[in-house]
Amino acid sequence: MPTMKKILVGLGALVAAGYLGLSGIAWYHDTLYAESAAAKPAASADATRVRDILNRNACYYCHSAKAVLPPYAALPGIRQLSEFDIDKGQRYFRLDPLLSALRDGTPPPQADLAKLERVVTNDTMPPMRFRMVHWRTGLNPHDQQTLLTWISHERKRWYVTPGVAPAFENDPLQPLPHTLPSDPRKVALGMQLFHDPRLSVDNSISCASCHSLSTGGVDNRKRSLGVRGQLGGVNAPTVFNAALNHMQFWDGRAATLQDQAGGPPLNPVEMASTSWDQIVGKLNADPAFAEAFVKVYPDGLSGPNITDAIAEFEKTLLTPSRFDAWLRGNTEALNSEEVRGYQLFKSVGCASCHVGANLGGQSFERMGRAGDYFAARGDALTDADNGRENVTHDTRDRQWFKVPGLRNVALTAPYFHDGSVTDLREAVRKMAQYQLGTTLSDADVDALTAFLNSLTGTYRPTLSPASAPSPALTAQP
């Protein structure tokens, strides 16, 4: 049991912190606001109001790597509390990209809008312990309405899919667009290259080997096999709808589809070609293909042109589902259990990360932010488990991964970057436990799984039947 002296010291520290908070939070707000305003004013009057609310409530304190902490944050006892809150806050929400968008007038990240909406709606930020010390913080009804109105405006400005039913314009999830702009001539070449094993050193592996269009855009292996039976480091993500991701690969090392297409051919574990010159040499030895290629790319075969063609093909790999029809206004496209699953998907917090038309792919998140996933997994950590840190070399990005899109998820087992879970229901339970810190009932797991099954879509090739691969996915009834 704690001694009376320790109790009194603790209470004294809390009271002192409270008094410091009355003046300290004002100092903190003024310092942060002055720094941001000096750099550049907010992009609009609405952005200024939003930034003022975030500053006034000291959201920087726990959710920014650039926070300027007040002097009292270094006091014994307060320092430990501050470090705990900052670590937890940055696990869930890094505010800096949103603040940059407010300053520059650029699109705020979709996941940031969803996270902000959730905490405003549930009135969970700032947390109660923070408010007890920083007595001037807390969102009043006017603040809440200002933030929710701005979120709705930004979604409709940047992210709404044309043709969505009015009732879903402000939803964090959106229907797929019918098409993405692409060049049909490049698409035809890209389709051939996607299935061409000559991109690998021994002519044994093509892009389709790991991303089969007949099995959900994946190979259904825990980790993929490369040339000579080499085992890759992560589970292969689906190629379907990948054009909608904000970055490619689990660790985001490719900024575009074209960048991603250039990775596997030269990866020594995957396709293991030694250079683009080696690949170009083999393709140029095929006169018919080389002639067809130069008609589309006058400068001929090259690494950039090959990857550009593959990326153009991948833009066509969209798989509209019954869920899209429902979001576009067909109220009979989903049954009652699937609709309940979608409502749960939003209310329990899944839609705070799995956002947009691809239900993911728009942010990086900590794997195990609400619990130690890797300790529970039990297997030794691998280099791949470092996630985003392997790209940024920032320890704060350790075990952060791109949120996977959930379309066709019923077809793409095993799940997660490590392929450690083979059952979709189990994946739902683990995500609730380790990402949201909640335990789902069997009935809720059933509903969520039913909703996820409604995301299985249909791939409709844009090429002629003679040149296109067979449709990969089965239409839902």
Describe the structure concisely.
Helices cover 46% and strands 1% of the residues.
What report would you give on this structure?
The protein is mostly helical. The chain folds into three domains: 4-159, no CATH class; 167-176 and 319-453, Cytochrome Bc1 Complex, Chain D, domain 2, CATH 1.10.760.10; 184-314, Cytochrome c-like domain (Cytochrome Bc1 Complex, Chain D, domain 2), CATH 1.10.760. It is built from 21 helices and two strands. It has helices at residues 4-39, 45-56, 60-63, 78-92, 96-104, 110-122, 128-133, 141-158, 184-194, 207-210, 257-261, 263-266, 276-284, 287-296, 303-314, 322-327, 336-347, 373-377, 389-392, 424-436, 442-453, and strands at 364-366, 400-402. Strands 1-2 form a two-stranded antiparallel ribbon. Helix 17 crosses helix 21 (442-453). The radius of gyration is 25 Å and the shape is globular. The termini are far apart. Mean pLDDT is 89; it is low at 4-38 and 465-477.
Keywords:
disordered C terminus; 1% strand; two-stranded antiparallel ribbon; mainly alpha; 3 domains; 477 residues; single chain; globular; Cytochrome Bc1 Complex, Chain D, domain 2
Q: Uncertain spans, ≥5 residues at pLDDT below 50? A: 4-38, 465-477
The DSSP helix count reads: 21
**Molecular shape:** globular
The figure for the number of domains is: 3
State the total count of DSSP E strands: 2
Q: Describe the main β-sheet briefly.
A: 2 strands, antiparallel
End-to-end Cα distance, whole Å, is: 63 Å
User: If you compute it from the alpha carbons, what radius of gyration comes out, rounded to the nearest whole angstrom?
Assistant: 25 Å
**How would you name the oligomeric state of the polypeptide chains in this document?**
single chain
Order of helices and strands: HHHHHHHHHHHHHHHHHEHHEHH
DSSP strand (E) fraction?
under 5%
Biggest sheet strand order reads 1-2
- What's the helical proportion of residues? 40-55%
* SSE-based structural type: mainly alpha
Compute the average pLDDT: 89
Domain Cytochrome c: 185-317, 336-456
Subcellular location: Cell envelope
Keywords: Heme, Iron, Metal-binding, Oxidoreductase
GO molecular function, one term: cytochrome-c peroxidase activity
